Amino acid sequence: MASARIEAIGLSKSFSGVTLFTDVSFTLGPGVLAVTGPNGSGKTTLLKILASLLRPTSGSVRLEADGRALSGDESRTSIGWSGPDLSFYPELTAAENLSFFRRAAGFVASREDVLVRLETVGLEGVGEPVEHFSTGMKQRLRIAFADLLDPPILILDEPMSGLDSGGRAAVQRVVSSARRRGPVVLASTDVEELPEADQVLELPRREK
């Protein structure tokens, strides 16, 4: 899909009467939006709402490709998601996990499709089960998973977490390619560690 766009319209979210954020709005076409703010400001919650993993208390999210709104089924394969709570089948290898998830999404899982993802994040040739992976290796696999279907919209929560310089370079490569396809939304408490952004959205500290 080309010319993808994501629009947040007046998003607010509360849990048990506690408000995380209110009236968040933005429009993003091809390019990068960095979401930052202190711990507890709602960065992860906002990204999950954008990725259709949570519902907002109020407001809405509109996803478009080629000038038309994406349906629910289309949006599920049009958004690439990675976050700290994303886990994999521990007894399977990285390649086996990616192959499984491609097939589960209704895509062909050729060896070449999987290898190119692993090469991009520096996990090519790693044949051990994921349960033996280091923190940084698991994070690299999360980034590969997010980009698995060449989604027009990429949403990465704390993408640099636990990564060495090679892993950070891998994230830069993935983001550089994805931002040409469509919107990329990244979140971190430290915006300086993220790839260069076209827009920055700072969530305020939550009032107690």
CATH class division:
Alpha Beta
How many strands? 9
The biggest sheet, with number of strands, parallel, antiparallel or mixed sense and barrel status, is: 5 strands, parallel
Cα-to-Cα separation, first versus last residue: 43 Å
Using the CA coordinates, give the radius of gyration.
17 Å
What is the percentage of strand-forming residues? Answer: 25-35%
CATH topology: Rossmann fold
User: What pattern of helices and strands is seen along the backbone?
Assistant: EEEHEEHEHHHEHEE
Figure out the total of helices: 6
SS content category? alpha/beta
Q: What do we call the CATH homologous superfamily?
A: P-loop containing nucleotide triphosphate hydrolases
Shape: globular
Second rung of CATH, namely the architecture: 3-Layer(aba) Sandwich
Tell me the domain tally.
1
Helix % is: 25-40%
pLDDT averaged over residues: 92
Give the neighbour order of strands across the main sheet: 6-7-8-3-9
* Poorly predicted ranges: none
Characterize the structure shown.
31% of the residues lie in helices and 27% in strands. The protein has 208 residues and is an alpha/beta fold. The protein has a single domain, classed as P-loop containing nucleotide triphosphate hydrolases (Rossmann fold), CATH 3.40.50. The strands form 2 sheets. The chain has a 5-stranded parallel sheet with strand order 6-7-8-3-9. A 4-stranded antiparallel sheet has the order 2-1-4-5, covered by helices on one side. Strand 1 (4-15) and strand 2 (18-28) form a beta hairpin. The longest helix is centred in the last third of the chain and has 17 residues, at 165-181. The model has no long low-confidence stretch (mean pLDDT 92).
